[in-house]
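Next comes this protein:
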Amino acid sequence: MRANYGKPLRHYLPQFQIEEIIDFGGLPVFQNATTYPCIIRVLKSVSSKNICIVEVDSLNFEDFSQYVKSHLYMIKNESLDENGWTLGDEKKALLKKLQNAGITLGEYLKGQI
């Protein structure tokens, strides 16, 4: 999603309509292998519509399709750029924007909290 080696793929995918991204993050989907799998569903057309996002936080579910339906949220297509994808919802994006603006309280007080 954010690694430099993924930039060509992030550049290529917007040619299509990204319908859904299911991100398993660092969950151990495959035993004895360190992977960061995700499922990306695309259509062979271009659209500026929203994208369905699911960030899977546990592999303990009885019905995967029900899990997806209950953990689904939307992000704007234009929020994905080739330099790095952040799949957080708009509240998370606002928090990130606030964290990146100005200086932290710890910096302001020079560590004297």
The longest strand covers residues 17-23. The mean pLDDT is 85.
